[in-house]
Amino acid sequence: MIVRSISELAPVEWGNGTSHRLLTEADGMGFTVCETLVRKGTQSALQYRRHLEACYCTAGSGEVVTASGERFKITEGTIYALDEHDPHYLIASDYEDLRLVSVFSPALRGDEKHTLSPDGFSQY
């Protein structure tokens, strides 16, 4: 059995926020669970080519926007799943941080970080 608290983990700074990687590849579960903070007023162009990701909003608000421009409001109690390695923009509202529980399959190593740039989608 694995029992772990966020207070035991150093956050990973991923570009526009932090991620506490609660379960990683080393845990042998086959998936990763993270507590993710997206800082208010930020926009991140992201794509996961080797992982599928689902995010459940636990606090705050924002949007997820497809590469083609389709917009989805994210508020507490909303889940979105990137089931086709979708390139997307993750946008936190201007007035509050966005907090998510993120699940990745297959599992992350745990040290991955985004390289955010206006030139394209950050990938890992």
Task: List strands and helices in order, with pairings.
Layout: E1 12-13, E2 17-23, E3 32-38, E4 43-47, E5 52-59, E6 61-66, E7 71-75, E8 79-82, E9 88-92, E10 98-105, E11 122-123
What features would you highlight for this structure?
single chain, 124 residues, 6-stranded antiparallel β-sheet, RmlC_Cupin_sf, Ectoine_synth, EC 4.2.1.108
Query: Number of DSSP strands?
Result: 11
The helix tally amounts to 0
- Outline: globular
Quaternary state, please? single chain
How do the helices and strands follow one another from N- to C-terminus?
Answer: EEEEEEEEEEE
Uncertain residue ranges = none
Q: In order across it, which strands form the biggest sheet? A: 1-2-3-10-5-8
Strand proportion, as a percent range, falls in over 45%
The radius of gyration is 14 Å
Please summarize the sheet with the most strands. Answer: 6 strands, antiparallel
Helix content: under 10%
Task: Calculate the terminal CA-CA distance, rounded to whole Å.
Answer: 29 Å
State the secondary-structure class: mainly beta
- Mean pLDDT level: 93
Describe what you observe in this structure.
Its EC number is 4.2.1.108. Pathway: Amine and polyamine biosynthesis; ectoine biosynthesis; L-ectoine from L-aspartate 4-semialdehyde: step 3/3. Pfam families: Ectoine_synth. The chain is mainly β. The chain is 0% helix and 48% strand. Strand 6 and strand 7 (71-75) form a beta hairpin. It is globular.
